């Protein structure tokens, strides 16, 4: 039975070699999703798993987001026609790992060693063949031996039963003529099928892969968006386009391939990858100056601009006349060309229902995987409960912010706090710790955290203040920034709700603060002392049964239910609200259960407070402040001239730079009183010039 079909094919290695770029953080769900998408696009060979192969995580070679067995199970579930496999390095992988892979019916394995140690592959090639797998030998760093020695390795691999030997340009330094010489040397002494795996350090991976195809390679490796170690691999989208221009790969859908790369992989590279329209332009020989016009016609007719580019260039590669674009657009719209491939949903079953400390490891892994793939910091928000908890409460919500990916846990005692901190130390980049005073915590949470944490950075915040910020921000955003003169009711009277009333009143809102049932008293006068303009502070304090409360509720644009303790805002209050009124559950669970049915029938717009934007702001502020203190703040010298940065006050004439540790620019001259002077006299200009010259010298000597 033939191992390979006639002609060349692409081995898609994004899920294996591409994982280097994200610290091996493709999850099992990512693997299933991307592998299924590749199969749907027509790929017949797909490699998955840890970049260094089977057993690499356990061997301490970088901890992947999933175990080998999880990758195997996910891929076996996702793929039905494509052949799939994993990498295997003797000394990292073990025979038992091959046996595990065989139980999941893995199609092929790629046994890799440095080309100078080819003999280490022999027993594992033999065992993999016994287990029914196709076996490729990857001659890593192939350039380290002569072509003749590479040929000898090929002959040995064939004698051991290997199905293919792959020429591996690990450093991305080979040129096409060298590929020819090495291939010919292997052909001179064996007839084993050949493959090629190239890196793009000299931007020759595509050219080398094309040469390998011209020489009859059975497989050439590539990754979506070129995602991979060092300078990356041959780019799948571009290599497929090149080979399709030669009439190769009729089974692969180029447009679908570009969609997968653009939609699933490019975001992991902070959108630094390759534009599908640019690839299509090269494929069709389309001049980019016509791109705006093509986009207009594509948008007008609801078609894919790539399809229009291809059809246009089949008739005219020089111009883009309007009448031709209009006709082709009509034809494409009438043809209703299918585009989006279908990918099943994975990862929705087989999840264990765990709570408390048992849920922390999974949260830590998920935070790290998401943060690394987004190019962000991972953070765990640790909230202190007002009352003791039987076990740690782990939130299932993970939030992606501007620069951070954050999860949250709540602890009810110092012992629980210690356990959480010790469990996640080093698993996340940042611990964002609530340090509000709580009765359940006898000792300082901040001091406890400082003693426990050895690897993760500690940042602190006030949960009480953040919650207040969150409610205020949500109210202001819902009212589209126009708060002055707007009637607002706050149902609940306690320190946080009073501060909210004050803030809204200072913004000019008409505020009614409603006391909890059983409580009375005037709060308006004490609040007035804290207002910016006390004489104009329009805060009314009402009892929960006050007759005038009805009028307030009927007029209110927004009501925030925020009781001191137990919920009391019920159906009798909700029924008085206008259908256009926003009703915010400011304390989470601040509404009586029977009120909810009335709300849905009555039509008021019910919203729960969203703390994440305020928490994100607090984290960004704390992290940036810490960074400035550690990296920028200080007094130093550059080129013998005193410099200051990060808020440090210098003497009159000192140079202010953006950072004392990593300066990139001069800001101005210190005036000795904390101010900045931007107009330089002759002496000041000379000092600034000397500092700039030193900055330039350091920028051009990064390894110094």
Q: Termini distance?
A: 59 Å
CATH superfamily of the largest domain: Aldolase class I
Helical fraction: 25-40%
CATH class placement of the largest domain: Alpha Beta
CATH architecture of the largest domain: Alpha-Beta Barrel
Whole-number average pLDDT? 92
Globally, the shape reads: globular
Numbering strands along the chain, what is their spatial order in the largest sheet?
1-2-3-4-5-6-7-8
Structural class from helices and strands?
alpha/beta
Number of strands: 25
Number of domains: 5
C-alpha-based Rg, rounded: 32 Å
Strand residues, percent: 15-25%
Question: In the CATH scheme, what's the topology name of the largest domain?
Answer: TIM Barrel
How would you characterize this protein structure?
- The two termini are 59 Å apart.
- This protein is α/β, with parallel strands linked by helices.
- The protein has 24 helices and 25 strands.
- An eight-stranded parallel beta barrel has the order 1-2-3-4-5-6-7-8, surrounded by six helices. Strands 9, 10, 11, 12, 13 and 14 form a six-stranded mixed beta sheet that branches. Strands 17-16-15-18-19-20 form a six-stranded parallel beta sheet, with helices on both faces.
- The longest helix is centred in the last third of the chain and has 21 residues.
- The protein has five domains: 259 residues, Aldolase class I (TIM Barrel), CATH 3.20.20; 73 residues, Helicase, Ruva Protein, domain 3; 105 residues, no CATH class; 149 residues, Rossmann fold, CATH 3.40.50; 67 residues, no CATH class.
């Amino acid at each position: 039975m033939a191992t390979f079909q006639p002609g060349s094919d692409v081995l898609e290695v994004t899920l294996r070699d591409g994982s280097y770029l994200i610290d091996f953080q493709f999850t099992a769900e990512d693997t299933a999703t991307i592998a299924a998408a590749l199969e749907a696009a027509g790929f017949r060979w797909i490699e998955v798993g840890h970049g260094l192969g089977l057993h690499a995580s356990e061997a301490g070679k970088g901890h992947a987001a999933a175990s080998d067995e999880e990758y195997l199970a996910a891929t076996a579930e996702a793929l039905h026609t494509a052949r799939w496999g994993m990498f295997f390095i003797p000394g990292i992988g073990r025979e038992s790992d091959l046996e595990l892979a065989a139980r999941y019916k893995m199609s092929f394995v790629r046994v890799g060693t440095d080309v100078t140690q080819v003999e280490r592959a022999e027993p594992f090639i033999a065992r993999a063949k016994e287990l029914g797998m196709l076996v490729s030998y990857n001659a890593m760093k192939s350039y380290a031996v002569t072509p003749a020695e590479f040929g000898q390795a090929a002959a040995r691999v064939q004698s051991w039963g290997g199905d293919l030997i792959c020429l591996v340009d690990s450093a991305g330094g080979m040129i096409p003529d060298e590929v020819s010489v090495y291939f010919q040397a292997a052909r001179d002494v064996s007839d084993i099928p050949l493959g090629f795996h190239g890196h793009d350090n000299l931007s020759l991976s595509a050219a080398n892969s094309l040469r390998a195809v011209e020489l009859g390679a059975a497989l050439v490796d590539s990754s979506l968006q070129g995602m991979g170690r060092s300078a990356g691999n041959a780019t799948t989208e571009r290599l497929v386009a090149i080979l399709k221009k030669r009439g190769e790969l009729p089974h692969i859908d180029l447009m679908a391939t570009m969609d997968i790369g653009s939609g699933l992989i490019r975001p992991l590279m902070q959108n630094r990858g390759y534009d599908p329209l640019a690839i299509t332009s090269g494929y069709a020989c389309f001049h980019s100056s016509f791109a705006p016009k093509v986009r207009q016609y594509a948008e007008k007719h609801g078609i894919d601009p790539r399809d229009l580019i291809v059809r246009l260039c089949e008739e005219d590669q020089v111009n883009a006349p309007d009448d031709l674009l209009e006709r082709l657009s009509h034809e494409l719209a009438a043809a209703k060309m299918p585009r989006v491939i279908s990918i099943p949903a994975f990862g929705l079953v087989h999840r264990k229902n765990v709570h408390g400390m048992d849920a922390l490891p999974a949260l830590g892994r998920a935070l790290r995987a998401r943060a690394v793939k987004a190019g962000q910091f991972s953070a765990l928000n640790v909230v202190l409960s007002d009352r003791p908890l039987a076990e740690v409460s782990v939130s299932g919500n993970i939030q992606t912010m501007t620069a951070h990916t954050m999860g949250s846990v709540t602890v009810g005692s110092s012992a629980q706090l210690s356990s959480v901190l010790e469990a996640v130390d080093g698993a996340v980049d940042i611990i964002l710790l609530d340090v509000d005073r709580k009765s359940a915590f006898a000792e300082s949470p901040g001091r406890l955290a400082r003693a426990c944490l050895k690897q993760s950075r500690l940042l602190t915040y006030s949960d009480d203040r953040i919650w207040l910020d969150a409610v205020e921000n949500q109210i202001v955003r819902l009212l589209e920034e126009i708060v002055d003169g707007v009637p607002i009711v706050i149902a609940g009277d306690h320190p946080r709700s009073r501060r909210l009333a004050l803030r809204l009143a200072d913004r000019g809102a008409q505020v009614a603060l409603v006391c909890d049932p059983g409580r009375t008293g005037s709060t308006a006068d004490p609040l007035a002392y804290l207002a910016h303009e006390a004489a104009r502070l329009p805060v009314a304090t009402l009892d929960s049964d006050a007759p005038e409360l009805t009028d307030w509720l009927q007029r209110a644009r927004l009501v925030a239910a925020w009781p001191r303790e137990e919920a009391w805002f019920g159906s009798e209050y909700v029924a008085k609200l206008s259908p256009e009124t926003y009703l915010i559950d400011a304390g989470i669970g601040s509404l009586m259960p029977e009120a909810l049915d009335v709300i849905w029938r009555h039509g008021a717009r019910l919203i729960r407070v969203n703390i994440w934007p305020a928490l994100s702001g607090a984290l960004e502020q704390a992290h940036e402040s810490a960074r400035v203190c550690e990296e920028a703040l200080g007094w130093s010298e550059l080129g013998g001239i005193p410099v200051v940065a990060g808020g440090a006050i210098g003497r009159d004439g000192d140079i202010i730079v953006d950072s004392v540790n990593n300066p990139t620019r001069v800001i101005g001259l210190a005036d000795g009183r904390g101010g900045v002077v931007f107009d330089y006299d002759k002496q000041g200009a000379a000092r600034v010039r000397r500092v700039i010259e030193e900055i330039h010298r350091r920028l051009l000597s990064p390894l110094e």
